[in-house]
Amino acid sequence: MAGKGWISIHRKMLDNPIVCKDSDHMAVWVYLLLNATHSEYPALFSGNKIMLQPGQLITGRKSIAEKLNISESKVQRILKSFESEQQIEQQNGNKNRLVTVVSWSEYQDSEQQDEQQVNNKRTTTEQQVNTNNNVNNKNNVNNKNKKDTIPKIKFAEFVSLTQIEYDKLTAEHGEEKTKRMIEILDNYKGANNKKYASDYRAILNWVVKRVEEEEQREHKRSEPFSRGQTTAGQYSANGSNHSSTNGKQVADPRNASEVGGGPQDRGDQKTPSKYDQFVRR
Fold first, then answer.
1. What is the C-alpha separation between 61 and 171, in angstroms, rounded?
2. What residue ranges in the chain does DSSP mark as E strands?
3. Calculated CA dihedral for residues 70, 71, 77, 82, nearest 10 degrees
4. Domain boundaries, the chain
5. Contact 19, 28 (CB under 8 A)
6. What pLDDT does residue 231 have?
7. Rounded Cα distance, 112 and 127, in Å
8. How far is Cα 160 from Cα 200, in angstroms, rounded to an integer?
9. 3-state secondary structure (DSSP) of residue 5
10. Which of 28, 43, 75, 269 would be a feasible disulfide site paired with 61, CB 3.0-4.6 Å?
């Protein structure tokens, strides 16, 4: 009944709140599965010969307690809990009890039971069952390997990115800014002997912010020069026609001819002769 062979433990057992209540509940449950018979088996119970059916075992709380190093009182509470939640059925005898695991077929595949029945020989059926149980794990490994095989390109001595990652950076920040980010990360890794699992994530995490701070500082330094050039231009435009003395505007002597009364205008007037002066008198 027990001692040789193996059993299947279904993953959905982890969804059972009764079995997973604590480590002792789990230990008792696995003990019952391991010691239950996988096929019809003759046994003696309460002085009577019986035929154990798959999923049945004859045991007692004392033997379970000694095997699992759990107190007999707790073993009793656990078995009672399993029974009340319809995980097992119990029939008490004089010195032991007959335990039946309910829905045994949900935990053990009939093909595996047949394999244990023929002295646990490995057959094609067993190999197929193992393949089915591990197919998800194999797919996960294959998917992981596919991700790992994406080639990375060295864009600097210490910075490597996939082409997709580089294209995302250039699309978001432009090529010049992306090159600056790669340069900053390359210098940092080289100077500090730093390694990242993903250089792309490192750039997104802190290098982008570093470059933006650089741009802000550069913009602030260029502002005073721009304001100085604007003021000088305004002074040149306004001061070309007027100058100020004690707050009063003074006409530019170069433009006196436009106002009138200049030396040239006065020179054009003729002085009257003595005859003209006499006639006027």
1. 69
2. 41-45, 48-52, 56-59, 88-92, 97-101, 153-154, 160-161, 242-245, 248-251
3. 20
4. 11-117, 153-226
5. no
6. 56
7. 10
8. 8
9. coil
10. 75
Residue 100 above 90 pLDDT?
yes
pTM of the predicted protein model = 0.40
Q: Which long-range contacts (CB under 8 A, 24 or more apart) does 215-219 make?
A: none
What are 58's two structure tokens? 């004859």
> Residue 243's pLDDT is what?
45
Torsions phi, psi for 99 (to 5 deg)? -110, 135
Which region among 56-60, 74-78, 193-197 has the lowest average model confidence (pLDDT)? 193-197
For residue range 143-166, what is the model confidence (pLDDT) as tens digits?
555 545 688 898 999 999 998 889
**What does the pLDDT look like over 255-276, one tens digit per residue?**
444 444 444 445 455 566 665 6
Q: Number of H helices and number of E strands within the chain? A: 13, 9
Q: How far apart (Å, rounded) are the C-alpha atoms in residues 270 and 273?
A: 9
Indicate the CATH number for domain 11-117.
1.10.10.10
Which residues, including other chains, have CB under 8 Å from residue 262's CB and lie 6 or more apart? 256
Strand-strand pairing, 97-101 and 88-92: antiparallel
Cα(6)–Cα(33) distance, rounded to whole angstroms? 10
| pLDDT band at 228; cut points 50, 70, 90 | low
The Cα-based distances of 257 to 239, 240, 243, 264 in angstroms read 19, 17, 18, 8
Q: What are phi and psi of 48, to 5 degrees?
A: -120, 145
Q: Give residue 185's pLDDT.
A: 93
At 168, list the tokens: 């995302």
Check: CB of residue 89 under 8 Å from CB of residue 83: yes
